[in-house]
Write a structure and sequence with these properties.
The protein is an alpha/beta fold. Helix content is 42%, strand content 19%. The chain folds into 2 domains: 9-251, Alpha-Beta Barrel (TIM Barrel), CATH 3.20.20.20; 260-348, Sulfite Reductase Hemoprotein, domain 1, CATH 3.30.413.10. Its cofactor is [4Fe-4S] cluster.
Length: 349
């Protein structure tokens, strides 16, 4: 699927925009100054498939911790800064690969110039984050409520500041907790700006509500060819953000090294305890990087037929199941051996 044409900038060694790759990112939920805990969390996210990580920078202690963190991780790091330009300068000096900062919110023009000069020197992009719930007071009063037009107007202000300083390594985001507003704002932005777009639904809630809102908003945008990097925001473990992002990109046929798990919803024909097997295999597949379809079906009525299109499958019966590979029945497996046999077959695939 061809992405909308944009400028390209680099976050670390990653070329963002100007190509068809969509980078998955997340954000640590630990105070950045707690270096060992942050590094441990980032390593877990790397294993799951995170390609860009963001950390908050609330004070100088956080900013100074960035060097120790970047020395121990393998993916680019974005420093999230609000209002204090000195923190931005400290993060840049410490080795951040990009910064998230709204230039209109850091005071006098010379403050912005200092940050832009430092970013230019190290070829560090700036992400301008427009959130519908925190638009400038005059814009909110002008439109009376959060609107896509108001978000675009806010973005124009911030972008203009950077462009006046001859800075174009910019990434934009237009987030809202309303998925339909997200769709409208990003579609307008893709027509107006030629900068790479970071997609996300902000304050999306729990794993369940975020899965619904993010799939609705980001799925539509991705299928439109809009977006160069995504974050699925979830209240809780950032690992869930990576898992859902991969599933969304896989469902949109935008990545092919993520396993596809098929499992029937169960019904009265199901005569075995299917859920634990599905859950264990789902958890195992989260760290598997293969283009493979695995099916776990609940009964012997539809199971073999539905599973024949999978690479590896189980069609369950009473306390046992049929192991099926490429549509051919290979053997019968007792339920207590299903997980291990499936893992063996997936490893060998």
């Amino acid at each position: 699927m061809k992405r909308t044409e944009t400028r390209q900038c680099k976050i670390g060694s990653l070329p963002l925009g100007g190509n068809d790759h969509i980078y998955i990112q997340s954000m640590c939920n630990i105070k950045t100054s707690q270096v060992s805990a942050v590094v441990s969390q980032i390593h877990e996210l790397e294993t799951l498939g995170c390609e860009i990580i963001r950390v908050s920078c609330m004070d100088m202690e956080d900013a100074q911790a960035i060097k120790a963190i970047t020395d121990q991780i393998h993916i680019p790091l974005v420093a999230d800064i609000h209002f204090d330009y000195k923190l931005a300068l400290a993060c840049i000096k410490a080795g951040a690969d990009a910064i998230r900062l709204n230039p209109g919110n850091i005071g006098r023009r010379e403050n912005v110039e200092a940050v832009v000069k430092a970013c230019k020197a190290k070829h560090i992009p700036i992400r301008i984050g427009i959130n519908s719930g925190s638009l400038e007071k005059d814009i909110h009063e002008k439109y009376g409520r959060p609107t896509a037009e108001g978000m675009i107007e806010s973005a124009r202000r911030h972008v203009r500041i950077l462009e006046e300083m001859d800075f174009y390594d910019t990434v934009l985001s237009f987030k809202s907790s309303d998925p339909l507003l997200c769709i409208e704002a990003y579609r307008k932005a893709s027509e107006i700006f030629d900068y790479p777009l970071h997609l996300g639904v902000t304050e999306a809630g729990t794993k369940m509500t975020s899965a619904v809102k993010s799939s609705l908003a980001l799925g539509n945008l991705l299928l439109d060819g809009i977006g160069n990097t995504i974050r699925i925001s979830i209240n809780g473990d950032p690992a869930d953000e990576i898992i859902l992002a991969k599933e969304l990109l896989k469902a949109c046929h935008l990545i092919d090294d993520v396993p596809n798990l098929i499992a029937c919803p169960t019904c009265g024909r199901t005569q075995w305890n299917m859920e634990p097997v599905v859950n264990e295999i789902e958890h195992y597949l989260q760290t598997v990087h293969k283009d493979i379809t695995v099916a776990i079906m609940g009964c012997a009525v539809n199971g073999p037929g539905e599973a024949k299109h999978a690479d590896i499958a189980i069609a369950g019966g009473k306390n046992e199941g049929l192991l099926i590979k490429k549509g051919k029945i290979i053997e019968k497996i007792p339920q207590d051996q299903m997980v291990q046999r499936l893992i063996e077959e997936i490893e060998a695939y």
